[in-house]
Amino acid sequence: MSTPQPPTIDPSRWCQRIASITTTSSEQLRLNYIDCQPPSDSKAKGVLLLIHGFPQTSYQFRHVITPLSNAGYRVIAPDYRGAGQSSKPLTGYQKTQMAEDLHILIQSHFGIKEKIHVVGHDIGGMIAFAYVSRYPDDVSSVIWGECPLPGTSYYEDVKGTPDVFHFIFHRVPDLPEFLIAGKEREYLKHFFDKISYNSAAISPSDLEHYALAYSQPGAIRAGLEVYRAFEKDAEENRNWKAEHGKVKLPSLLMNGKEFMLA
């Protein structure tokens, strides 16, 4: 059986911009994003916020942005803090802060006050949980997956297994940056060749796109800081659950059949 081919990318309605936002701690941040409005003759179904994972950017969603928009959704796909064309500060990679960044983007930059649908993959799933748990009144539903959530027993069970060796490696101070510098393409290729189910889905040009993104000054360090924040994330998630219980929103778990941690 032949491998299904992704739909042809149609970026004709995409608007790609960089927003300047100010966080609640008065931090100035630039967030790159793609905004795709639905066709004028479609029935509006709301706003979809798509949150990418590592080692990717908003480019991860290139094949689904237009189809989702054609279905009636306004699709917003940002590069989160530290990734792509967004700012790469030294700190602020706990997922509650990264969720706050995106909440400010939606509420203040776009002026969207209606409830939105939040979709997160991999690291984006962790950010999605932080978003919907901290801002439940601003969310209609959440779809997330392919990520063990810090603070859960599942995360504790898998964080030291060989399949996710990078959970430990990325958290070592300074050494990963030293070893990866100048070899970003080779390191990212490992993820797509060895960790993904269908490595053929990432073309040479896709790999080059991500390699260039993570070869920018500060980009790999920022990507590693996302992992170095996991224990703080775990603490915050445990405390939040102890006080509030489970998230009480329509939720859908998104995992592939051959997800390596299933």
From TrEMBL:
<dbReference type="InterPro" id="IPR000073">
    <property type="entry name" value="AB_hydrolase_1"/>
</dbReference>
<dbReference type="GO" id="GO:0005777">
    <property type="term" value="C:peroxisome"/>
</dbReference>
<comment type="similarity">
    <text>Belongs to the AB hydrolase superfamily. AKT2 hydrolase family.</text>
</comment>
<dbReference type="GO" id="GO:0016787">
    <property type="term" value="F:hydrolase activity"/>
</dbReference>
<dbReference type="InterPro" id="IPR029058">
    <property type="entry name" value="AB_hydrolase_fold"/>
</dbReference>
<comment type="similarity">
    <text>Belongs to the AB hydrolase superfamily. Epoxide hydrolase family.</text>
</comment>
<protein>
    <recommendedName>
        <fullName>AB hydrolase-1 domain-containing protein</fullName>
    </recommendedName>
</protein>
<dbReference type="InterPro" id="IPR000639">
    <property type="entry name" value="Epox_hydrolase-like"/>
</dbReference>
<dbReference type="Pfam" id="PF00561">
    <property type="entry name" value="Abhydrolase_1"/>
</dbReference>
<keyword id="KW-0843">Virulence</keyword>
<keyword id="KW-0576">Peroxisome</keyword>
<feature type="domain" description="AB hydrolase-1">
    <location>
        <begin position="47"/>
        <end position="143"/>
    </location>
</feature>
<keyword id="KW-0378">Hydrolase</keyword>
